[in-house]
Amino acid sequence: MVAKTFTVAFEGVEARLVEVQCAAVPGMPGFAVVGLPDKAVSEARERVKAALNALSIALPSKRVTINLSPADLPKEGSHFDLAIALALLAELDIVPKEAAEGAVALGELALDGRLVPVLGALPAALAAAEAEKTLICPRACGAEAAWVGAAHVLGAGTLAEVLRHFTGQIALPAATAGEVARPPSHRDLRDVKGQERAKRALEIAAAGRHHLMMVGSPGSGKSMLAARLPGILPPLSPVEALETSMIHSLAGLLSDGGISRARPYREPHHTASMAAIIGGGRGAKPGEVSLAHNGVLFLDELPEFPRPVLETLRQPIETGDVMVSRANAHVRYPCRFLLVAAANPCRCGHLADAARACSRAPGCGEDYLGRISGPLIDRFDLRLEVPPVAFADLDLPPSGDSSAVVAARVEAARAVQAARFADHPAVRVNADAEGALLEQIATPDAEGKALLVRVAERFHLSARGYHRVLRVARTIADLDGSADVRLPHVAEAVGYRLAIGVPA
User: Fold this and answer.
1) Which of 396, 381, 194, 214 is nearest to 303 (CA)?
2) What would the pLDDT profile of 224-252 be if each residue is shown by its tens digit?
3) Kindly report the CA angle at 101 between 100 and 104, in degrees rounded to 5?
4) Nearest by Cα to 6 from 83, 118, 117
């Protein structure tokens, strides 16, 4: 009789159940692993043999075949070791076959039988819960996997502990969900001298998840402002934390004994490749846009990014997910992020400074910002110029509200949106609203409507730009505690759409 247990193979953020079958038949002694394994899976037989030898368990003088079903699904990674060992122990009648069939095993084996942490414990726990099976994983992965409340997760330190559990000697303890508490950020908005309009734009962006573009000379505080954005964002909700951690689990970013409720903040360098930003490479791994899901993606020196990379951002910004297509994989990842971009007005950076502007102005600025296509710029809800800060202003006392005060206003606005969109699961913030729903929640009063129509005609707003102004106005009204969108809200939203130096 063939013994079997289960493990998982990953397709994006999804974990597909894999049946691990083991048969030991008479013949030339050998150990083969079939079912489209990669190099790491094929090498599992050596790690399994060494781990069993450490337990003084000898392989039978038979031909041992391990089949990973379905056989046409690529198997990658070292997490198949524990499942292969468990199926082999069941075939040798050391472990009850019925018990092995009720488990999903995940873990890499060291040569002495220790279980080494692996990637993807969180998606594996979801797959185990759906199949109504118990997940056996390394103890270091237990706190992460236990976040799936419907899953029964057992953490083990060694293969010997797993063996004692299945033979009824010492039961493995159930893993408990762990949460990593991030230390409070020392970056406060009050550290930024001046720039009150930019701080206001940050608050609006955080409240409604509106994309923000800042243009200003070097040293004006663009990066400093962006670095303080995570400090005013509300913590991840349990659903958002699970979504984000699924991606981070596959990327190996959950290494602190649990998941975090802090929103991700990613800031890739402008030399990053398209695969690094969008996703791809071997196995179609998630890129920076997906690692920033439910958080912030900060692109400094935006015109310096390669043009093809920037153009591929257009679809993820609009749809909230990205399809990574390779010859052997087509994987979809979620990527609802808040995009913050910063750029100098020209290559030398001093176009707006009459005392320091280069001789090529204004063509220098037009050429430099012209590297960013109009359709991409059209997707930024908020655009503003960040003026340089005078040296004398650096000695002034801190001004404006602290990050804690702004964060409280942002959280209150997010709470209003959560209640508003309670009956629309696909919509969480104002930036997600569209169509009839947007008209229902963001139609301004008569004066505001008249202003918006005049601006649209005068500055040739696109349909996308028109709707983005409405979304921003709705967020401003939420921050103002207003149930309706009125003229002041529309006027402020229009002001951020028609920033000087950035095309409308």
Assistant:
1) 214
2) 999 999 999 999 998 899 999 999 998 88
3) 80
4) 83
